[in-house]
Amino acid sequence: MAKRTSNSHPAPATTTAEVIAGVDTHRDFHWAAARNALGQVLGTRRFAATLAGYQALLAWLLDFGPIAAIGVEGTGSYGAGLTRYLLTENVHVVEVNRPNRQKRRQKGKSDPQDAINAAGAVQSGDATTAPKLRTGPIESVRLLRNTRDTLVKARTAVWNTLRAVLITAPDDLRERLQNLTPAALLSACQDPDTVPDATGTTLARALLDSTLSTRATLHELATTIGHHNQAITTLDTQLTALITLLAPRTLAQHGLGPDTTGQLLITAGNNPDRLRSEPAFAMLTGIAPQKASSGLTDRHRLNRGGDRDANAALYRVVITRMKSHQPTRDYVAKHRTPNRSNGKHVIRMLKRYVAREIYPHLTADLAAIHHLTLDKP
Fold this sequence. Notes:
Blueprint: E1 19-25, E2 29-36, E3 41-48, H1 51-62, E4 67-73, H2 80-88, E5 93-96, H3 101-107, H4 111-124, H5 137-167, H6 171-177, H7 182-189, H8 200-206, H9 210-246, H10 248-251, H11 258-268, H12 278-284, E6 289-291, E7 300-302, H13 308-324, H14 326-335, H15 344-369
Parallel strand pairs: 1-4, 4-5
Antiparallel strand pairs: 1-2, 2-3, 6-7
């Protein structure tokens, strides 16, 4: 079989049968690298980040022999399209994280080298995670939540600007508005009578008055906040309905609402095979105990990796249960000690227990999702 090579890495004279590949992904193009089972580089090449480019990339790799696995960087961003295509072609895809910074400083940085490193991570066993599927119902949850989070941040920024404008507003306007509740403040600022009813030169002359200019600014900011409020309310309604349909078992657990349940669904992904066991779920959410012993000290600490958004969701569940769940309150009272009055160690233990409790319900919901179809009522 004829073997293709690139100018930068010629193929060796003899290679083993199976190919391990790596892909460094970008917005407009991807760099691919092929290695044999001995770690020898067979070639590197650049391909367009289009469907035709994905097809050419796979055909180029197949010229070297059967493909054992392909490590792809950025499977949830620039590599999402390539990952979807490879999975439909029944190619084993492995999610690869960015290489260690220390190694990058030692060996330099280039796109072909990153692709070679991605293949090496798969070959060495450093990368073993299956990529999340960017299709299906959970992808809908992710898109809605991301949009909602963006709008919430934008609304906060506009609120901060409105309050900053109010601080430096003329005295009569500031004194009339500064002590109002947020709802009353929005209503007062959105009053159309506060905006100059003019255009062109007349409007410009009216805005020479700093009081009128401030009122016009407050009106625009308050109107923007109102639009964001409406959009966020609509997204909340959509998310609640969708998550209630997808994860009723998880949502029924004490302390879990649409927000925390939605985050756990996104963390798990649309392919439940990624959650091989309950300890794997604990590791994924950053609450698995790890050895932290040294010398005569023998202790454990929680994993500081994992999905931090999922970790934060479990934290909110624990805080809710500490206030309203009697078994949790009893556990806190039993394990809180005088020298650890802040209770942080108790919260860490509770997060681990909550993950153990949620896991079977979450996996059952994920399994049930695959039986849902879009044409079902």
